[in-house]
Specification:
Distance between the termini: 30 Å
Strand content: 15-25%
Strand order of the largest sheet: 9-8-3-5-4-10
Largest sheet: 6 strands, mixed
Length: 209
């Protein structure tokens, strides 16, 4: 069972990004590796960011929010299914917390204020959403969104949806580790790699050495 706790400032990593740490977080459990599922636009870019984090052992691109029949790239790209492009992040909560993953999601991985859109990518499949496994994850995510809104971190309201995870569908093999395997692809060079650079510059304490 996940434990939600309020964190004193002394317990947090050093960070000079100016972006607030979550006031609430999940405490480590005895269950080993944990998983988080986020939708934040094109999964190529989101995967590229989270793969660089210390404590993250695997990031898998996939789909969530729809049914198995249409859980494929051709169908999802039409924007007419209920799926979102998502990443499943497998992490060690004794190294990096769920709250830290949320911080990277909001500060680096995407713009949480644009509805069904990230940059030039438009459609329901590119919506901002956190697919939570249990109420503890939902509570921490909701508290962090409220914290960011109260601090007026963004000029526009956050539109990130909190949705219970029913099923994660792994995307096609050619989507996995896409940015690592295709660094010269124009979309990766123009959109994904600048996010990785931002992560490494502003959140160096989180990055795997």
């Amino acid at each position: 069972m996940n434990i939600v706790c309020d964190l004193p400032a002394a317990a947090r990593r050093a960070d000079h990004s100016g972006f607030p740490d979550p006031a609430r977080d999940l405490g480590p459990t005895t269950d080993g590796a944990q998983e988080a599922v986020f939708a934040a636009g094109c999964f190529w870019c989101v995967e590229a960011v989270f793969e660089r984090l210390d404590g993250v052992s695997e990031v898998i691109s996939g789909y969530a929010g729809g049914n198995a029949d249409s859980a494929n790239y051709e169908a999802v790209c039409t924007g007419r299914t209920d799926h979102a492009e998502v990443v499943k992040i497998v992490y060690d909560p004794t190294v990096i917390s769920y709250g830290a993953l949320l911080k990277v999601l909001f500060a680096v991985a995407h713009d949480p204020t644009t509805l069904d859109r990230q940059g030039n990518d438009r459609g329901r499949q590119y919506r901002s959403a956190i697919f939570f496994h249990d109420e503890a994850e939902r509570d921490v995510a909701a508290a962090y969104i409220a914290q960011l809104e109260a601090a007026k971190v963004f000029r526009s309201p956050i539109v990130t949806a909190l949705v219970p995870l029913e099923k994660f569908f792994t995307a096609e093999v050619y989507h996995q580790d896409y940015a690592v395997r295709n660094p010269g692809q124009p979309y990766i060079a123009g959109v994904a790699l600048p996010k990785v650079d931002k992560l490494e510059h502003k959140f160096a304490d989180y990055v795997r050495k």
